Batch of 3 targets.
Target 1
Amino acid sequence: MGTSTAAGKNRPGTRAAWHNWAGNVTATPARTVTPASVGELQEAVRRAAEDGLKVKAVGTGHSFTAAAATDGVLVRPQALTGIREVDRAAGTVTVAAGTVLKDLNLALAREGLSLTNMGDIMEQTVSGATSTGTHGTGRDSASIAAQIRGLELVTADGRLLTCSEKGDDEERAVFAAARIGIGALGIVTAITFAVEPVFFLTAREEPMGFDRVTAEFEQHFAENEHFEFYWFPHTGNCNTKRNNRSQGPAAPPGAVSAWVEDELLSNGIFQAVNSLGRAVPATIPSIARIASRALSARTYTDIPYKVFTSPRRVRFVEMEYALPREQVVEALRELKAMVDRSGLRISFPVEVRTAPADDIALSTASARETAYIAVHMYKGTPYQAYFTAAERIFTAHGGRPHWGKVHTRDAEYLARVYPRFGEFTALRDRLDPDRLFGNDYLRRVLGE
């Protein structure tokens, strides 16, 4: 990116393109700012409004949609980082918005604390992850955003608004929506999360056949605090993962085992076989059969972030839909049948996770027990045919697309599947009537 002053403008001639992690979204902002304080951010927002420019904040670019893209002012919050306060009595931690989840997890572990649940990637900023609804898998514990207890954000008029479920009417209304705000309500500057004393999780990874895991899905869900599985297209093979609390002690995978499973198979060889599959698609079914048998059963115990998260260095493009949990097995079987009868060649596994119902207006799990199906394609591989066919299945089941992952839905569709959609858009009208924080993506998914 071009250099910039903290509150303001790039030097002449330094207008530079921004692109996301997957490389499928690019934007060229008029200027880029990296505020060193909340006050500087407020000034940058006011100046953008005066100059007639839109404003968007961008984290580490792990979204696959253009939610953060702008040709106006691009805010990079990398200087707004770190833990502001640990309140052990309340069981909360307040953290600046630009803090990367990895750094938060490490800092919490040093304090003997942990989030209750998290996704499997921790390269995102806390504001980017929560604003798009990032989640892991859980029977009782929900997304990262559902663990928020307070928010601070800069609104379109440059105000600094603090909100929580304990505030006045306006603060509660903002809190109900802004935990997953897709950047439409303001720029988040700090988040207060609920945390708890660090605990141990025992992970059990086990290969399992597709027919068995789908037949026993509800049983596995009921018996485990965190259950997920991956199905390898072109095969009848899955890999399951069950994470449950335990007394410990820590018993992480051995150094060799961890390297083979997490680095060699999941990143090194996986990168190579995806590159081969992209060059010679006909090899993909054979590769899938070999790859799906390469992972072996293993059990290990460690603190949460070391169990929930994994390195993901093979780049891809992803679509994920949230379905009513009772419909996920039927939808997955339809997806498998579609792939089996098509000429598609899919080198990435399909991921299935769950979440309990929550009370956030635009959460993919808002007011319903939820299961997720995520489909992926290797970066640089044409994905439209696969994603279009998958999306047709997901929407037939009333699916809700992940806000940060590829989809084609618009405001008309989304208003039907989110009972509180109108509540969110009405709040947006009050907080940002001139759409200072708008862009093409928000125009599509939220309407004018």
Note: The mean pLDDT is 91.
Target 2
Amino acid sequence: MKELDRWARVLGAGNDTEALAEIVPLRQRLVTSAARVLWVDKSLRHCPDGDLRLAARQAVQDAVNLWSEVAVVTRKFELHLRGDK
């Protein structure tokens, strides 16, 4: 699968197992980042600058979306490793 081959190169991995070993800590760092962005969003909840509140809320959504997309790639590697298509 060409998509997974490209991902493996990005992750510096030679096979599915190595790719998963790289992507799991990446996902954990994304969870940590999302939690920090959420903390900022909550801190700015009563900020008088509506644009800033909107930007903070968008940052939370972007962080969650990024984690979700990486989760999809993780699942593809897991399926490929098992031999499922």
Note: The mean pLDDT is 92.
Target 3
Amino acid sequence: MTVFAVEYVYAADSTAALDEHRPAHRAWLAGLADDGQLLTSGPYGDGAGALLIFKVQDETQLNDLLKRDPFAAAGTIAGIRTTEWTPVIGVLAPHAS
């Protein structure tokens, strides 16, 4: 399994859509957390985006998951950056392969 850091950048005019779709987005994330695929996530303090940390088989699986995000379906995400990440110290370090 591989750990990935995913950064979302929200569309500038998406506040209403984010508010509308946030319950479905969070339910989707909670399911992934229950399955062990999402280690943690949360919005940036300025509301411009979010950071999500996934543990999945590979980038193909990650991309398939991200397409299912209700925020993606609603068009609220202007940009996504995915980076393979190796946590070395702290509570996420045991998840490194």
Note: Helices lie at 15-34, 59-67, 70-73.
